[in-house]
Amino acid sequence: MSKRRQKHQSLLRFFSQREAVDVPQILKAGIGAFVAIALLGLLLEPTGLPLLIAPFGASAILVYGYPGTAFAQPLNVLGSYLIAAAIAFVAASQCPGAVWATALAVALSLIVMMSLRVTHPPAGAIPLIAFADPSHVIQLTQVAIVGAVILIVLAFVLHRLPPRSRYTVRPSPESPNMPPSAICDDDVSSND
């Protein structure tokens, strides 16, 4: 068999092994992400907070697109943003502009998140934002909390609309540090 034909067959196998696409669920996730980011944008002026930060885009993808995963759970989202903001505050106030302190803040955020089993990866970017502008680290803490709460509240509402999806999922005792793939789309029922 020629190399070209082997590559073609490999690509066919790769794409044919994909699961079926749930178009209504995907559209609902996209609408949720749109509404969440638009709402954060609309709140810029009345709150005076720069609520459009990059980590919230990544959070929206997890919370609305993959609601059954461990990383998307409400406690993980809020807990991780609180942890990262607190650690970023200490690092930025004690060592403003120090690259090593920023790297340490990201590492400590990860360690604390994992130890408390509340990991939400987008929150790991908060110390980097604090490093970019250490003079506004208190405001960044407010942004992290307000934004996380808005994303969570909207997720509770969105996931109760048809097609329904289960948003809050507890880890099993056998697997308290479950990876995000531990709870699959198969576990999310439209009848919940």
What does this molecule look like?
The protein has 192 residues and is mainly alpha-helical. It has a domain at 24-43 and 52-163. The protein is built from 8 helices and no strands. The protein has helices at 3-16, 23-42, 44-47, 54-65, 74-94, 99-116, 126-132, 137-158. Helix 5 (74-94) packs antiparallel against helix 6. It is globular. Mean pLDDT is 87; it is low at 175-192.
Task: Provide a quick synopsis of the model.
By secondary structure, the protein is an all-alpha fold. It has helices at residues 3-16, 23-42, 44-47, 54-65, 74-94, 99-116, 126-132, 137-158.
- Kindly state the percentage of residues in helix: 55-70%
Strand content: under 5%
**Helix count, DSSP H or I runs of 4 or more residues:** 8
The string of secondary-structure elements, in order, is HHHHHHHH
Number of strands: 0
Distance, first to last CA: 50 Å
**Spatial shape:** globular
Mean pLDDT: 87
Q: Give start-end ranges of low-pLDDT stretches.
A: 175-192
Could you tell me the radius of gyration in angstroms? Answer: 19 Å
Specify the structural class. Answer: mainly alpha
Main sheet: strands, sense, barrel: none
Topology, pairings included?
Layout: H1 3-16, H2 23-42, H3 44-47, H4 54-65, H5 74-94, H6 99-116, H7 126-132, H8 137-158
Helix pairs in contact: 2-4, 2-8, 4-8, 5-6, 5-7, 5-8, 6-7
